[in-house]
């Protein structure tokens, strides 16, 4: 599928699933090496990162790895609201744990910074951040990212878990909005 229409907007093919898969394979292999002899807790930020998190986690060969989920929302339509709502909280005991946060996208950076604050308050041994995508030109805050799949321009995208007002998360590839209104 080269173009899709979601609600009022047209989107064009931007990142193919083949490309995403090769990023995921490389990142998960690196994590398997970096966290050897550890029992890391992977933390998936719902909703957007469910596909990315599943694909990373199924390639993690560490027998003591665990996964958990938190649900945050900061985006409305095609723009950030500037504030982060927590919709499902973090119940795990993180004391002394290595936590690896799995995000689909870091855009303004507001969601990830808020997430890091919440995790830090629970006294983990270490926090690592992995994001499939980063929009460097959109960042509004300073944040250290440990694993970055791909840097992309500041265009609104959908697919592979990412939505436009609830739609488009089931697209296998990633699409970007076309200039045309
Ligand atoms: O860097 P930021 O500007 O904070 O944007 C990144 C966040 O935006 C999206 O989530 P969204 O708020 O749309 O919620 P969703 O995951 O449920 O779609 C995405 O999944 C990231 O979590
Ligand atoms: N769907 C979607 N959600 C986002 N959250 C932050 N940036 C984006 C984006 O480009 N697309």
Automatic annotation (TrEMBL):
Subcellular compartments: Cytoplasm
Principal place of residence: cytoplasm
Transmembrane spans: none
Swiss-Prot/TrEMBL catalytic activity: GMP + diphosphate = guanine + 5-phospho-alpha-D-ribose 1-diphosphate; IMP + diphosphate = hypoxanthine + 5-phospho-alpha-D-ribose 1-diphosphate
Domain Phosphoribosyltransferase: 20-164
Cofactor(s) required, per the database record: Mg(2+)
Descriptive protein name: Hypoxanthine phosphoribosyltransferase
Organism field: Aquipluma nitroreducens
Lineage: Bacteria, Pseudomonadati, Bacteroidota, Bacteroidia, Marinilabiliales
């Amino acid at each position: 599928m080269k173009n899709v229409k979601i609600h009022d907007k047209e989107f064009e093919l931007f990142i193919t699933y083949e490309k995403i898969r090769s990023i995921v394979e490389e990142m998960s292999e690196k994590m398997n090496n970096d966290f050897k002899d550890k029992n890391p807790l992977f933390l998936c930020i719902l909703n957007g990162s469910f596909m990315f998190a599943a694909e990373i986690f199924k390639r993690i060969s560490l027998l003591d790895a665990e996964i958990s989920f938190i649900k945050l929302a900061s985006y409305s339509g095609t723009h950030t609201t500037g504030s982060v709502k927590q919709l499902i909280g973090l119940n795990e005991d993180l004391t002394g744990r290595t936590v690896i946060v799995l995000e689909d996208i870091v855009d303004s950076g507001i969601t990830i910074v808020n997430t890091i604050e919440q995790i830090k308050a629970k006294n983990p041994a270490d926090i690592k951040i992995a994001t499939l995508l980063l929009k460097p030109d959109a960042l509004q805050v300073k944040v250290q990212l440990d694993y970055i799949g791909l840097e992309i321009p500041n265009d609104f995208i959908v697919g592979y878990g990412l939505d436009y007002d609830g739609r488009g998360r089931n697209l296998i590839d990633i699409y970007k909005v076309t200039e045309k209104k």
